[in-house]
Amino acid sequence: ATKKIAIVVGSLRQDSFSRKLAKEMMNMAPGKLEMEIVEIGNLPLYNEDIDTATPPAAFTEFRDRIRAADGILFVTPEYNRSMPGALKNAIDVGSRPYGKAAWSGKPCAIVSQSPGALGGFGANHHLRQTLPFLNMPAMPGPEAYLGGIGSKFQGEALADESLRGFLQTFVDSFAAWVERHTG
Ligand code: FNR
Description:
Rossmann fold, binds ligand FNR, five-stranded parallel sheet, 5 helices, globular, alpha/beta
């Protein structure tokens, strides 16, 4: 059966390369993965004082959408050698109430990107550090640290066939990873 994948994009920027990559990957596993972007830009900063018996609607909607997914694909830039605050905030929002994390048990994979040479390695691995605590099996490989992203697109369109081939391999591996962890 088709698995539902929530894509979480770590950038809020309109012309985000992360978002463009996410959109390319969305269509790479037809019939296997049904992927949609779950937005994080409207989430209030996590604060236990507002996360009461009646939390903000944005929190509840986000948690419900993550819970409804069979797996999660993170596509993110690197900010100051770590993950963007918006992404960490979304992870924190989805992690509560304690013991009822919406993320729990969801197989996931990470793509990081940068115009620079290191491909967001720092962001990728700081994100990876949170995953065992959230009980999320993270696909070990292929690893995706996409460097030089600034030259890979022409407008919205991916214009690098070698990168397209790699993304296809990555999505195929992720589909197998999700299948293995969801049966
Ligand atoms: C950056 N950028 C960046 N790049 C990098 O390789 N390592 C880094 O540590 C940082 N730090 C950083 C901090 C902040 C606050 C900004 C705004 C940017 C550059 C970043 O990789 C570049 O802007 C990407 O294009 C952002 O990804 P999106 O928005 O295109 O998905």
